[in-house]
Amino acid sequence: MVLVYILGAVFLLSLLVKLYMSRNDGFWKKTGIPTVDAKHVDGFFKRMVSASAFHHIDMRIYKGLKENNLKYAGIIEMSTPTFVCRDLDLIKKIYVKDFEYFVNRRGFQTKKTDPHFFKMLFNLEDNQWRGLRSTMSPTFTTGKIRRMFENYNICSDKLVNFMKKELKSTNELNMRDSLSRYTMDVIANSAFGVDSKMFEDTNAVFSQMARRFQNQFDGFGMIKFFLLLISPKLMEVLNISMFDKEADAFFSKVILGALQHREKTGEKRDDFLQLMLEARKGLLKTDEKELDTFEKEAMLKDNGPKQKVNLDDDMIVSQSILFLLAGFDTTETLLIFTTYILATNPHVQDKLRREVDATFGKEGFTYDSVNKMEYLDMFISETLRMYPPAVRTERRATKDYKIPDSDFVLPKGTVVSIPVYCIHHDEDYWPEPEKFDPERFSAENKSKTNPYAWQPFGHGPRNCIGMRFALMEAKAAVAYMVHNFEFAPSKKTHIPMKFKKSGNIKPIDGMWLNVKPLK
């Protein structure tokens, strides 16, 4: 009898889940917007069980659009109506020209379960987002990054010394281990003015807690993320938080301790925390001479009203944790793939080394010398094309939007998905897309390419605010590594690349390479 009750409860639960998941099945039919054949879209339970890498899922949908000659289409993703767009002209309108209709991202209502996550810049909406973005933008101008460059030099030197020490007992390294230490150390120094001890102590508490944050989208974390997509309210009822509470408490304590120390002693550092303190006091101003084209696009294309944001301790903690998460994980991923490219493309490695060695001076590398290396910039840009850390970008319609050159209206509240990885691998924009070719980003070739075909940081007012920080951090590390080491595949190197089943693009089993010191 007990078994009958259990089976009955399971049946009833599965029926309720099915009804809930199918509640929007007729959504796109009402709009008239075309849809993709069901064979291209994984069902909810299949995604839960397989935990497919997101870019594999997106590639199937993208293939469906191309097969049916569709510029865009509607799908139901985790019961959420989602508008998938591959047309670059429409993407430009969504990012920039018609930004007023797409001010917000998908948005996660986690005020009770993850209050810091809820207050992070990328999750804020409308005028509150405008206010905080306006306040934080001066923090990431090229002038401010220049002030932080010495941190990159110090951390890059630690990386080189650590790798040389490891290579005394082996010629094979898991580059993910070395590079995670580097990106963690950069963030600890550049964000909080803290020595992470990453290169001295494998079990450093800073590392352990950051790893717990980083693994949010693996294993059980993926299931929690899917649940968050389906029903944030259920997450709240069940008191399930997306982020690790112990890690959140640890970093909150570190950040608040640093804040209190500086306010008490008047100590100043060239880091993110200092810039946030200056912003709170109204001392942080933007010098337009420091802005590049990308920054101007972000700051000048949105003229909506801005809501003044109170940069209290809790708000600064939220943005600092966001800086930690975004800066550590995504830059680590980029750098892992740069070493893979170097190892599997020796002619690229040799050409890059010639430029790097010719640039290296008595003081090592400077902000200006790294910035002037054209082939290094091309190399990083092509790596980001092939392996963009964020495989898709999302926006949400804040009001009904009449799709240009059509009779369709995209309803308010609809999530818009821009499949970045798919566009980066589309032969219509990138001939032989699986071939690594930095020359695509030479001055001559770059001018012939639609700028919206390359979007690892997004575009428009809601682009990645930390783009310049990440690029300079990555360039410094690559320059130091190429100057000091030669990379080649090892027996453990996966050729072709194999990806981890994760929300973000990552190689499976780390990145094992043969590494030879040059000096």
Brief write-up:
With 519 residues, the chain is an alpha+beta fold. Helices cover 52% and strands 7% of the residues. The protein has one domain (2-517): Cytochrome P450 (Cytochrome p450, Orthogonal Bundle), CATH 1.10.630.
**Would you identify the CATH H-level superfamily?**
Cytochrome P450
What share of residues is helical? 40-55%
Which structural class is indicated by helix and strand composition? Answer: alpha+beta
What's the count of strands? 9
Description:
This protein is an alpha+beta fold and 519 residues long. The chain has a single domain, classed as Cytochrome p450 (Orthogonal Bundle). The protein has 22 helices and 9 strands. It has helices at 2-21, 27-31, 44-50, 54-67, 88-97, 115-119, 126-136, 142-166, 175-192, 205-214, 220-230, 232-237, 245-265, 272-280, 293-300, 313-344, 346-359, 367-371, 374-386, 420-424, 443-446, 467-484, and strands at residues 72-77, 80-85, 172-174, 393-396, 401-402, 409-410, 415-418, 485-489, 512-517. Strand 1 (72-77) and strand 2 form a beta hairpin. Helix 8 (142-166) runs antiparallel to helix 9 (175-192). The N and C termini lie far apart (75 Å). 41% of the residues are buried. The model has no long low-confidence stretch (mean pLDDT 85).
